[in-house]
């Protein structure tokens, strides 16, 4: 089995538990996810199977999208609903104009300190493991990028006001930290009361399948849940090679211009490409290489010989 699966993770499951369940279901060792989703959160969790695991590095950096609810006036030790309440400030009056001004500070490139309840490693241990032991470790701020942060609904007439928003962000962003930092800037504290990942690169929530749905399809020998490896590589330019060049590429040999099917024109060639057989089979991912004499070729980086 080789390919990608768009899994809809239930709240309460860890990303690792999803991988373990599918590994047992398919009786396959080579399987993994493309980025941890909090146990308390639901949503899109792309899974790579077989040779699909060889493209994880190209999926993990793609933007993520979330729908989140922030509750103001309450602080928790985990910055989410699963944590211990530290303090409350009931009746906080949330000014929409001030809220919008502060939200602007979270758009674009920002620095963010990973929360203690995160999967970041410190001396071989996950931070959340150290947090369970009651330890607090100094963490360095990381640069992340918030592409979009849009308000969907603001409920002000509550003891603890709530904000529902959509966030599009880069890899490594912790939405709970955005929430907690926003609460601190507003002077009232806040915790993330709800989170669902709505997209991870091209994987969308509306197309995701639960583990139960995947199991039912598997039992019926319906493998339509398995997406092709190149499903998530569509932003990489594609070239078709001549039939005579196919065995050379599968053997890891460079592809010269003469091996490309059709005219290549005089435009600058892309630095990184997908290489396909005339029949549409994905053969390899290749890097552009040139010589001092002006000659160039594509050197296969990852070859998919058994697809």
Automatic annotation (TrEMBL):
Residues 176-233 form the tRNA pseudouridylate synthase B C-terminal domain. It catalyses: uridine(55) in tRNA = pseudouridine(55) in tRNA. The active site is at residue 38. The keyword Cytoplasm does not apply. The gene is truB. Gene3D superfamilies: Pseudouridine synthase (3.30.2350.10), PUA domain (2.30.130.10). Keywords: Isomerase, tRNA processing. GO terms for molecular function: RNA binding; tRNA pseudouridine(55) synthase activity. Its EC number is 5.4.99.25. CDD domains: PseudoU_synth_EcTruB, PUA. It holds the Pfam family TruB_C_2. InterPro entries: PsdUridine_synth_cat_dom_sf (IPR020103), PsdUridine_synth_N (IPR002501), PUA-like_sf (IPR015947), PUA_sf (IPR036974), tRNA_psdUridine_synth_TruB (IPR014780), TruB_C (IPR032819). It is an enzyme of class 5 (isomerase). Residues 23-175 form the Pseudouridine synthase II N-terminal domain. This is tRNA pseudouridine synthase B.
